[in-house]
Amino acid sequence: MKRGIILFFSFLFSCLLNAQLSIQQDTIRYVMANLNLREAPNTTSAIITQIPKGTQVTIDEDCECKWIPVNYNGYIGYVSTKYLSKEKIECTTTYNNSTSIKYYTNSKGERVQSPTYYNSAPPGATTLCRDGTYSFSKSRRGTCSHHGGVAKWLK
């Protein structure tokens, strides 16, 4: 009798664990481009922060909607679903023999793209550095400090 009860609860626990893992997998998405996290589900609402390309975000549920609430770095806001993918994407760009895009965590704990070479200002760039890279810095202090300083502020 005890063995039957133990087997039943073991089976039940296994089913619940598999269901939880399935739910967790369904709620993870990857950002396919530098993406604005907005206060409301439209392009005219205020931007809370920008989510870098390739970043993993959490959604409450999968839907066929145009906008969806996401949780990113403690911020909750809306993003367009056309920029989300179930598959993890590689974050590379081609400029002078395929340079990988790198990221750093700023003083506010946000993941920010490191200064990168582009032919023209990419979405989300805030500054053109003197060495020709575009910075995505969220504050002015220290921007382009390892890239010859600021050549031009974009925002």
UniProtKB/TrEMBL annotation:
Mitochondrion in keyword set: no
Cited Pfam families: DUF3761, SH3_3
Signal peptide: 1-19
Record key words, sorted: Signal
Coiled coil: none
Organism lineage string: Bacteria, Pseudomonadati, Bacteroidota, Bacteroidia, Bacteroidales
Keyword Lipid metabolism set for record: no
Descriptive protein name: SH3b domain-containing protein
InterPro entries per the UniProt record, alphabetical: DUF3761, SH3-like_bac-type
Top-rank lineage group of the source organism: Bacteria
Domain SH3b: 25-88
